[in-house]
Give the backbone structure.
Amino acid sequence: MIRSKSNMRFQILANFILILFTIFVITPFILLIMSSFTEESTLIRNGYSFFPEKFSLGAYAYIWKNASKIMRAYGITILVTVVGTAVNVMLSTMIAYPLSLEQLPGRRAITFYLFFTMLFSGGLVPSYLLYSNYFHIKNTIWALIVPNLLLSAMSVLLIRTYISTSIPSALFEAAKVDGAGEFTVFFKLVIPLSKPIIVTMGTFAGLGYWNDWTNGLYYLTDTKYYSIQNLLNKMITDIQVLSSNSSMASQASSEMAKLPTVGVRMAIAVVAMLPIFVLFPFLQKYFQKGIALGAVKG
Amino acid sequence: MFGTIIAFKHINYQKGILGSDWVGLKNFKFLFATNDAWVITRNTLLYNLAFIVINTVVGIILAIFICDVVSKKLKKLYQSAVLLPYLMSIVIISYIVFAFLSTENGMVNNSLLIPFGKNPISWYAEPKYWPFILTLVNVWKGVGYGCLIYISAINGIPKDYYEAANLDGAGKWKQIRCITLPSLVPSVITLTLLSIGRIFYSDFGLFYQVPLDSGTLYSTTNVIDTYVYRALIKLGNVGMSSAACLYQSVVGFVLVLTANLIVRKVSKENALF
């Protein structure tokens, strides 16, 4: 490639703007993390700041001491993410595989039916009434799992396209000649061979479950099954939750003031987003691939 | 989908959904008689239009720059930076916004306004700032999605085009204007079409959670989704909320069909269906 002077100038400009943008993206995270490490009295006096006067691990020590509620919420989030993602991916693939077969009767009609749900939906009210009055998932762990299982018409269609374009159908026929039933074909051929697309779709489903807080907001009125996102959501609107959780709740308000609530909130937020930061380098390529497929629209 | 009939009924839980009495268009009459219907429609449309334009423009600019960065390491860093906020839950984002804007402890009030002798602002009580705040938050969170799509579109452009342009003496800007931008048109149309179809929907979290459901901000933060939620769960008004909900679904559906029809007239291969 010819490197002209204008090209050099362009490189400098591009890097300059992109570095500015990177700073714009990163600073909010830094503020959040810094705030979680700031000493409580400094926070109350100076507010959240990028350059705190006094550092402290107090907020994290407090979380550690009062871990039961937070750990429970964390555990629920992990459980819901693992179970939900597994079932979601399994269901999507099970719908996608028959749709990829040409001999399926009514294939076009079913595909259109799936596609139509992407264009037109009843919205919140009917689904709310259906889930709470007919499926009775209110205040059960299912409230966090079930509603997200049905929201993946797009991923069904993408998996179907992958199966019908990347796996030769002669393979299925050969297996059936050898005496394999549909279930053997599905578990021994379809799932292993469509692993790349399943992993990509699974990453998005997993992220959806991890970040989901609306289902908890709609269907949980009891804090028993709160996920970490719901707990955070409740805390920011209602700071008393943490104090009422602690054993000091009934004591004088001067005791309450000592609770590092201002910093603890930020510390819990950091703890909740930590797994995404840790897993990000490993999952990044799947996210990029999935977005490039047009997989998920925010 | 079957649930659309709820909008035409007076729901009575004892009788069940199917057994409830029909009330015709009464729910809709109530909805459009209020000032809310106008406010939520205006907010939803204006915010979404702003988001579509800003996210497309910023996304394309970033994508062009990222694709031209020579250093592999920096390229990877920039790509990660655009994607990262997209993966954060809106609850976490509301915490970050709170850290900046909280009246007593916020960074902006304590470190920027007070030291320079300005009066602190109670951000969560002043509706006039929120259009800017929400747009900024949306760019921060959402630009990565479009940007990555444009990056993969740019990577799909044959390299010979640029080499030929180089030989002909076309400068960088000319190459961007004459090769890169025209090649991005199909992706822009597809993404815009999808967004127009969703123009009556909005990110519930962004409008409910980020302003912390603050009542004084409703004039600039209430959108159809938050209105439906509040009417249904906080007020228990099934009729009104289902009317708003159906209004949203139907207008959204008509908009996708219209937008698709227009695109099909202009350039057939870019239409969705």
